[in-house]
Amino acid sequence: MSILVNKDSKIVVQGFTGNEGTFHATQMIEYGTNVVGGVTPGKGGSLHLDRPVFNTVQEAVKGTGANVSIIFVPPAFAADAIMEAADAGIKVIVCITEGIPTKDMVMVKAYLSDKDCTLIGPNCPGIITPGEAKIGIMPGFIFKKGHIGVVSKSGTLTYEAVDQLTKLGLGQSTAIGIGGDPIIGTTTKEAVEMFMNDPDTHGIVMIGEIGGGMEAEAARWIKEHGTKPVVGFIAGQTAPPGRRMGHAGAIVGGKDDTAAAKMAIMAECGIHVVDSPAEIGQKMFDVLNG
Amino acid sequence: MNIHEYQAKEILKTFGVAVQNGFVAETAEEAKAAAERVKTEYDSSWCVVKAQIHAGGRGKGKVMGSEQRGVQVAKNPEQAAEIASNLLGGTLVTIQTGPIGKLVSKVLVAQDVFYPGPNEPKEYYMSVLLDRTTKQNVIIYTTEGGMDIEEVAEHSPEKIHKEWINPAVGLQGFQARKIAFNLGLEGTAFKEMVKFVSALYKAYDATDSAMFEINPVLKTSDDKIIAVDAKVSLDDNALFRHKDFAALRDLSEEDPTEVEAGNYNLNYVKLDGNVGCMVNGAGLAMATMDIIKLSGGEPANFLDVGGTANAETVEAGFRIIMSDPNVKAILINIFGGIVRCDRVANGVVEAYRKIGDIQIPIIVRLQGTNAEEAKKIIDESGLQVFSAIALKEAAELVEKVLKG
Question: pLDDT (tens digit, 9 = 90+) per residue, A132-163?
Answer without folding.
Answer: 999 999 999 999 999 999 999 988 999 999 99
